[in-house]
Amino acid sequence: MERRVAREFRHKVNLLIDNEAEKDYLYDVLRMYHQSMNLPVLVGDLKLVINEPSRLPLFDAIRPLIPLKHQVEYDQLTPKRSRKLKEVRLDRLHPEGLGISVRGGVEFSCGLFISQLVKGGQADNVGLQVGDEIVRINGYSISSCTHEEVINLIRTKKIVSIKVRHVGMIPVKSSADEPLKWQYVDQFVSESGEGKGSVAGLASSGGRDNKEKKVFISLIGTKGMGCSISSGPTQKPGIFISNVKPGSLSAEVGLEVGDQIVEVNGVDFSNVDHKEAVRVLKSSRTLTISVVAGAGKELFMTEEERQREARLREQERQELMHQKRLALETNKIIKEQQEKERLRKLEISQKAAEEEERYRREIEQITAEEEKFKKEWEEDWRPKEPPKSLRTVTAEVHSAPRSKHKIDLEGVAHDQLETDDMDEAITKQDKQGFQKYLEDFDPYSMFTPEQIVGKDVRLLRIKKEGSLDLAVEGGIDSPIGKIVVSAIYEGGAADKHGGIVKGDEILAVNGKILIDSKLAEAQATLAKAWNMGGDWIDLVIAASPPKEYDDEVTFF
After folding, report:
1. pLDDT computed for residue 3 by the predictor
2. Which residues contact 320 (CB under 8 A, 6 or more apart)?
3. What three-state secondary structure class fits 508?
4. What is the rounded distance in angstroms from the CA atom of residue 100 to the CA atom of residue 44?
5. Least C-beta-crowded within 10 Å: which of 59, 105, 258, 435?
């Protein structure tokens, strides 16, 4: 199971991140987390590399690698996003306007995102959020619209229909020359105070933000809530829970010392005194209470607890500053690695272009040489008059191939086919009305002695009628080491000619030598020669020797 999760995670990383340095950084961050188990620091570090919307799915891919006890906190610290579309309607003529600011457009190579909301305005009231991407306005897709075109589209109707999906990031681009960057909507201002995200600060604050929550309490059949309330000091006014009895109803619903009560049954507690707060809490047996968790926790700490909290804050601040320095150094290293990667890819592309140009020139030169050789061959070797007689030409003087033989006890071959028998066979071919092999062909004019030593070399001309229907196999890179006829199909031009059989080696086609050719090159040469102009195709072959059979064996 763990191996499968890790394998799926690595696949997702390879799919979404191209830069090898960023991949290494991501794996190092996860290894450091499993050593320290510091989840806020992990999320802060992850945001350095998950720095654009297309990489956000990595948060989901990393979640199975987080221990179960940390997964809830991980979900709270990581950005919330949704694939679902949400549609809202806004009144363009509302006195306070739409209540939103947007940024982006096709001219910035990104979509249109909500970058600011007016608190309590129209957009805020219908549930729009900073970091929402607007995908449709009044039913029209805006994926290819400029910023100005979107604004004009909003102005076309009184009631504006907007469809959004929450991404949790907004595009940042200060000038036209600056590359597009992305910023998480909840990032703090950095140490310079000018809008750059402090990832370390964000990671720390994620667990300390005062969060509002709502609880429901029914006092029917109970003795009371089991908690005490107090008014805050002048510098921190409000109604706070000062004590919670263990096992009480308040403890069961999650109320804690230091929680600030902001509303009870619809009554705002921001400006009520202690007496009025007690009256409202006792006025009903069912209570709906809204509190801000931990908002006044420091009001009820002992001196020892305050000192311990101060020490923890200082340690955390020092740790966060250290992590921030590491993040800045890591960013610098990543940028250097990216620049090296860019230069490496540029060098590779330049070398590839040079190699391609060199290959093109070589191909042109080879083609020109082949055309020249073909022209010279046709001028030198094409017959000027019909052949007078038929004969077989061999590359060197050697005994004719044997057709049958006898074997004695020592395995010595007997009975060789005589030369007169060969001449008689050729004479029979003459009587059939066609000529299989061309005379006056000197194989040494085309080949070196080493290339044709021991071979029965013949030149034949096949008339182009229908299909050649000849198959070959082998090639210089095969175990056979040469181009050999593997099949002659019945009724084809090769079969009708009769001068070439299965097992013959093809040495040349229309003057192009195939001795050192691969199979694909030989097939292409044959096809091209057959399909180009002219009524004939010239093949130079090395006839295969006839098979020998042990048909006469004497036993003693």
Report:
1. 79
2. 41, 200, 201, 203, 204
3. strand
4. 28
5. 435
CA distance 84 to 61: 19
pLDDT band at 435 (very low <50, low <70, confident <90, very high): low
Determine the Cα–Cα distance for residues 55 and 48; give it in Å rounded to an integer. Answer: 11
417: which DSSP letter? P
pLDDT at 223: 80
Nearest to 523 by CA among 492, 467, 484: 484
Could you give the 3-state DSSP secondary structure of residue 94? coil
Give how far the C-alpha of residue 310 lies from the chain's centroid of Cα atoms, to the nearest Å.
Answer: 48
Q: 259 and 326 in contact (C-beta within 8 Å)? A: no
The 10s digit of each residue's pLDDT in 326-378 is 877 877 888 888 899 999 999 999 999 999 999 999 999 999 999 888 888 87
Q: In angstroms, what CA-CA distances link 428 with 389, 392, 400, 436?
A: 12, 14, 18, 11
Tokens of 337: 């690695």
Q: What is the mean predicted confidence (pLDDT) over 458-468?
A: 89
Q: Longest C-alpha distance within the chain, in Å? A: 137
> Cα separation of 484 and 519, whole Å?
9
Opening angle at CA 180, ends 174 and 184, nearest 5:
90
CA–CA–CA angle 72, 73, 77 (5° rounding): 120
pLDDT band at residue 245 using 50, 70 and 90 as cut-offs: very high
> Mean pLDDT throughout 290-295?
88
More reliable by pLDDT, 268 or 19: 268
211 token code pair: 């969060």
* Alpha-carbon distances, residue 390 vs 398, 479, 510 (angstroms): 19, 35, 20
**pLDDT (tens digit per residue) in 132-146:** 999 999 888 988 888
What is the per-residue pLDDT for 430? 44
Q: Which of 40, 16, 48 is CA-nearest to residue 332?
A: 48
Q: With the C-alpha atoms ordered 527, 533, 536, 540, is the resulting torsion angle positive or negative? A: negative
Q: How are beta strands 406-407 and 552-553 bridged, if at all? A: parallel
> What is the CB neighbour count within 10 angstroms for residue 170?
23
Distance CA 488, CA 214 (A): 89
